[in-house]
Every structure is written in structure tokens, then in C-alpha cells.
TrEMBL record:
Ranges of residues in domain N-acetyltransferase: 17-188
SUPFAM superfamilies cross-referenced by the UniProt entry: Acyl-CoA N-acyltransferases (Nat)
Protein name according to UniProt: Ribosomal-protein-alanine acetyltransferase RimJ
Gene Ontology MF terms: protein-N-terminal-alanine acetyltransferase activity
Family that this chain belongs to: Belongs to the acetyltransferase family. RimJ subfamily.
Superkingdom of the organism of origin: Bacteria
Annotated keywords: Acyltransferase, Transferase
Organism, as annotated: Glycomyces algeriensis
Length: 209
């Protein structure tokens, strides 16, 4: 843990799901996953100014990692690998971290289509939110998701994140300014029940009905 980035580095696990910092050795696996998932991921992510194949090469990953190391040192991000049974399956970033009176950050995530539907992303997000709002000394985490993105909205719903409203024309994605739902959770909301426990409780309630 560092004074400029409390809570980092992050190593968390729950069952078959684990979360850890990205490594240089992830380059080939990350590239294979991202390139194979272009149709699944590209509609929901901002463009890079180059082709998807070029933007997701092993060399691009290593360049990205160098940039992320600077943001880690500055205390403004946590770039994390999401793993299933020890193998890289997706990514989760806590970014735009602002300390002091704001104490807030944004979370974004992606998952390989072949691993979708297993509860991996929801579990990873629950673990990271719990860590960020306690050990990480943040007060608020926000997640912004396009209304059309059913799987990502489902992740937020599984965790019982509070939907605060619709952000009109929020991000430029896939050729236009896109609306996003804004979800959030604060440290006070997890004080009596960890997010990972809330997720399990909501799943039981849903199964009973």
C-alpha cells in the first residue's frame, strides 16, 4: 500500500474468481481475448483511433501497461485483471480516482464472451467495491452503463447498486454521443453489509421468487 494510492496493490478472491494487477506476462492472453471479442465489446467502448486488431496487440498492451503504471503512481487508477480459475478472463478498472473532499472514482469492466453469464464480473466488482470503500479509503464508486447494454446493467442490478439517473449524451461511443445510466454506492451503504454478501442475499431472494 502507498500513501498516494491506498488499497493498491489489489489481490482479492472469492471461489473461482480472483482479481489482481495486470502483468506484462498477460500480454498474449489479453490480446487474444480482446481480438476475439471485437463484436462483443466494440459497441460499448470508446474508439481508439486505429483498428481494433492494432489497438489490441501484445505491443499495445505493454504500452498501455506503461501508461497505467504512471496513473497508479499518481494514485488515480487501479487497472485489474479479472481471472476465472486462475486464468485471465476480463478486466476491471477503478479510474478517475479523486481524493480529499470528493473521495470518489469510476469503475468499468469487460469480460470475455465465453465467460459471460457465470457471475464472474459481478463477483469481481463486488470484491473491488468492498475493498475500495474500506481499505482503499474511497467514499463513493460510480458505474456508468448504456441502457442498451443488458449484460452490464444486469451486473449492477445483481449488486443492488443505486441507479441515480440517466446521463444524456454522456460518452462518445460507436459514432455518437450515447446516454448512460449512472449507478453508485457509498461507504455508508456497505457499512452493515459487504457488497459480496449483498450480492449473495439478492441472488437468494431472486431464486425464491
Amino acid at each position: 500500500m502507498t500513501l498516494s494510492n491506498p488499497g493498491w496493490p489489489v489481490h482479492l478472491n472469492h471461489g473461482d474468481v480472483s482479481v489482481r494487477p495486470f502483468r506484462r506476462s498477460d500480454a498474449a492472453r489479453w490480446s487474444d481475448l480482446r481480438r476475439a471479442n471485437e463484436a462483443w465489446l466494440a459497441p460499448w467502448e470508446p474508439g481508439t483511433g486505429t483498428t481494433w486488431h492494432e489497438a489490441h496487440s501484445p505491443a499495445a498492451f505493454r504500452a498501455m501497461l506503461r501508461g497505467l503504471k504512471r496513473s497508479i503512481k499518481d494514485g488515480t487508477s487501479w487497472p485489474l485483471a479479472v481471472c476465472w480459475q486462475g486464468q485471465l478472463a476480463g478486466g476491471l478498472t477503478v479510474g478517475n480516482i479523486v481524493r480529499r473532499a470528493f473521495g470518489s472514482a469510476y469503475a468499468g469492466y469487460w469480460i470475455d464472451r465465453g465467460h459471460a453469464g457465470k457471475g464472474i464480473t459481478a463477483t469481481a466488482l463486488a470484491l473491488v467495491v468492498d475493498h475500495a470503500l474500506t481499505v482503499g479509503r474511497l467514499h463513493r464508486i460510480e458505474v456508468n452503463i448504456r441502457p442498451e447494454n443488458g449484460p452490464s446493467n444486469r451486473v449492477a442490478e445483481k449488486l443492488g447498486l443505486r441507479r441515480e439517473g440517466l446521463h444524456k449524451r454522456y460518452l462518445y461511443i460507436d459514432g455518437d454521443w450515447r446516454d448512460h445510466y449512472g449507478y453508485a454506492v457509498t461507504a455508508e451503504e456497505i457499512a452493515s453489509e459487504r457488497m459480496i454478501d449483498r450480492m449473495a442475499r439478492l441472488a437468494r431472494t431472486e431464486a425464491e421468487h
